[in-house]
Design goal:
With about 475 residues, the chain is α/β, with parallel strands linked by helices. The chain folds into 4 domains: about 120 residues, Rossmann fold (3-Layer(aba) Sandwich), CATH 3.40.50; about 170 residues, Rossmann fold, CATH 3.40.50; about 90 residues, Orthogonal Bundle (Helicase, Ruva Protein, domain 3), CATH 1.10.8; about 55 residues, Arc Repressor Mutant, subunit A (Orthogonal Bundle), CATH 1.10.10. It has 21 helices and 18 strands. The strands form 6 sheets. The protein has a 5-stranded parallel β-sheet with strand order 2-1-3-4-5, sandwiched between helices. A 5-stranded parallel β-sheet has the order 7-10-13-6-14. A two-stranded antiparallel ribbon has the order 8-9. Strand 1, helix 1 and strand 2 form a beta-alpha-beta unit. The longest helix is centred in the C-terminal third of the chain and has 19 residues. About 30% of the residues are buried.
Length: about 475
């Protein structure tokens, strides 16, 4: 077990290191915050614990709190114990909020005290402690749950994220691939660079090169000014190729040079532009099958898939469903100043559903239910009105259930909910559009546009005198 000791007082730092070594641990000592940050970035996988001074000498711009914040953001799995010479309550509170797990006061340092702190930290390093840290990291990135498989995914995000390897994220639609990509970026050394998404299915084929690599003024008809491509925008950051499996075979070859040679060329230019990019890709398709069918280039597959993170469907991690429902319920209550909850039996009912649309479908359904069901506690009988499982069929487990209507898409159902919410709000304020817009937390112009879209007669909600 390796412990990093960081303190600007060389003698004190050496004393701490000698005590830690006598307790059977390997140590490494540093005396400046910048050196500590650089060392952590390079050797995070080797460090099990950091003992970190809070205050450094005059002339040093960074403090221990800066090192703590950097370490907890980039490497949340490494516990940090702060060394305090002044014992400021305000500083202690801030360090705790940033994620410090304990404190050692310089005035009462002893072998027994350090042993006690290390024993406590080692306990937190156990499986439970590590799992809690991973789940906390995932939660901060909008990835909700508590299942073992989710913890394993979180571990992969953190481990792979610290590298510069290209990662392929696979899984069914709605499993959260975009959130995972953003979490990888957030834990990487590129976090200060841009996270740029290439929405492949929505880029017209004829504009593909222009969108990705940019073009010069006059390069083609309609190129009235020079355009910066998505590759240039992602320089020193992360480029996320969403739905890479939808890219046509003839366009795939455009990615070889940027991936291998690390440069791009604008349409109409003869100059190469160097790009330092980390590539993340996502797909709900089986690229192995696509390669066999000659729909995906094998060289591209191997360049993009230096590592892979697979996201299992929600029906295979049902223990996460309640966590997800509670998360979105809390969000709804905060947004609308309400206090709605799902009863235990309602949560159990939701956990028993297959959720073929995965987290995306579950979150949409929860939103529909919270905005349409009256009363603060939602019961099973109210869920039955909106969620109708397919029953009486031998292959019912392979079919998704219907939400709100068997004859409409989810998008159409959500539009109906949107309309119903607007109508109920207009009824509540006697047709006053300004008040309704305020309650709905949207602009008056947006509300008017929705009223026209849904053909709502506002006059029907005004009290006749």
């Amino acid at each position: 077990m390796k412990i990093l000791v960081v303190d600007d007082n060389v003698d004190f730092c050496t004393t701490i290191a000698e005590i830690v070594t006598s307790l059977g641990f390997e140590t490494h000592t540093l005396h400046l915050p910048t050196d500590a940050i650089n060392y952590i970035d390079r050797h995070a996988s080797e460090i099990n614990l950091i003992l970190l001074d809070i205050e450094f000498g005059t002339g040093v711009k960074l403090t221990g709190l800066d090192v703590l914040e950097h370490s907890r953001r980039r490497f949340p799995q490494i516990p940090v114990v702060m060394i305090s010479g002044k014992g400021s309550i305000e500083t202690a509170v801030r360090a705790t909020k940033l994620g410090a797990i304990n404190f050692i006061e310089k005035s009462i340092v002893s072998k027994d005290k350090i042993k006690s702190v290390l024993d406590s930290a080692i306990e937190k390093l156990g499986t439970d402690g590590e799992s809690k840290e991973i789940l906390k990291f995932l939660n901060s990135n909008g990835i909700i749950g508590k299942s073992k498989v989710l913890i394993e995914i979180g571990d992969s995000i953190i481990r792979y994220g610290r590298t510069d390897l290209n990662i392929l994220i696979t899984g069914e639609t709605g499993t959260g691939k975009r959130l995972v990509a953003k979490a990888i970026h957030n834990v990487s050394r590129r976090v200060k660079g841009q996270f740029v998404t290439v929405d492949i299915p929505n880029i017209p084929k004829e504009l593909f090169q222009s969108e990705l690599f940019g073009h010069t003024k006059g390069a083609f008809s309609g190129a009235t000014e020079t355009k910066t491509g998505l590759f240039q925008k992602a320089n020193r950051g992360t480029l996320f190729l969403d739905e890479i499996g939808d890219m046509s075979l003839d366009l795939q070859s455009n990615l070889f040079i940027p991936l291998e040679e690390k440069y791009v060329r604008k349409i109409g230019s003869i100059e190469n532009e160097a790009v330092d990019i980390r590539f993340l890709s996502a797909t709900d398709r089986d690229l192995i099958v696509a390669m066999k069918e000659n729909k995906f280039r094998e060289p591209l597959y191997h360049r993009l898939r230096e590592c892979e993170i697979f996201l299992p469907p929600l029906r295979e991690r049902a223990e996460d469903i309640v966590e997800i429902v509670n998360y979105y319920t809390k969000y709804h209550n905060e947004q609308y100043s309400e206090f709605k909850v799902f009863s235990p039996s309602a949560l159990e009912f939701l956990s028993e559903q297959k959720w073929y649309g995965n987290v995306r479908e579950l979150s949409s359904v929860v939103r529909v239910i919270l905005q349409t069901v009256k009363g603060n506690e939602i019961e099973v009988r109210e869920l039955h009105k909106m969620i109708k499982p397919n029953i009486g069929s031998l292959d019912s487990d392979t079919k998704p259930y219907n939400v709100l209507s068997e004859d409409r898409t989810l998008k159409e159902d959500l539009a109906q909910v949107d309309k119903k919410k607007i109508e109920s709000t207009l009824d509540r304020v006697n047709g006053n559009v300004s008040k309704a817009a305020a309650l709905l937390a949207i602009s008056r112009e947006t509300l008017h546009n929705k009223i026209r879209k849904y053909e709502i007669e506002v006059s029907n909600f005004r009290v006749k005198k």
